[in-house]
Write a structure and sequence with these properties.
Radius of gyration: 53 Å
Order of helices and strands: HH
Number of helices: 2
Mean pLDDT: 80
Low-confidence stretches: 137-145
Largest sheet: none
Distance between the termini: 121 Å
Length: 167
């Protein structure tokens, strides 16, 4: 029995050694494969890194161009804005002159009418007074002379010029 057991153990040891040798060969083949892959990556890495560097440089150049374009667009926008403000001021100047002229004309025509109404209302109040009280002294009615159209235009033109100079 000992000889049979020794034979079985010997066969098991040989089989185990065969499996170990097979595993070592497979491990050596895998290590060789990894070495070839590492060599390939090492050979291609500088080329790939150089291409990536060129791509990043090209991207930076494009970004600088975009920055230049955006800066120019901002400058043009500022110029258009100032031109628009100047045109707005020039276009609205006659309108403001006419509006101011109309307002002054309205006030000059409206003031004598108000004074007349005030004078008439004082007369009506004065007629209802009792006889033992002396009548109220009335202020003399000063009629305002309406300004001439030319003086209004001259006045408004001066105001308008001051307004344009401020803007």
């Amino acid at each position: 029995m000992t000889s049979a057991l020794t034979t079985v153990l010997l066969i098991a040891a040989i089989a185990l050694c065969a499996v170990g040798i097979w595993a070592a060969l497979r491990l050596a083949a895998a290590a060789d494969s990894v070495k070839k892959l590492a060599d390939d990556v090492e050979a291609r890495a500088p080329e790939l890194l150089e291409k990536a560097d060129v791509t990043v440089d090209a991207l930076n150049v494009e970004l600088l161009r975009m920055d230049l374009i955006i800066t120019q667009v901002e400058e043009v926008t500022e110029l258009v804005s100032s031109a628009s403000n100047a045109v707005h001021t020039i276009v609205n100047a006659p309108y403001e002159v006419v509006t101011g002229l109309g307002e002054r004309l309205r006030r000059s025509l409206h003031a004598p009418r108000k004074q007349r109404e005030h004078h008439e209302s004082r007369k009506q109040l004065g007629s209802g007074e009792s006889e033992d009280r002396p009548p109220m002294e009335q202020e003399p009615l000063v009629e305002q002379q309406p300004a001439t159209d030319q003086s209004l235009v001259d006045e408004l033109t001066g105001e308008q010029q001051a307004h344009v100079e401020q803007t």
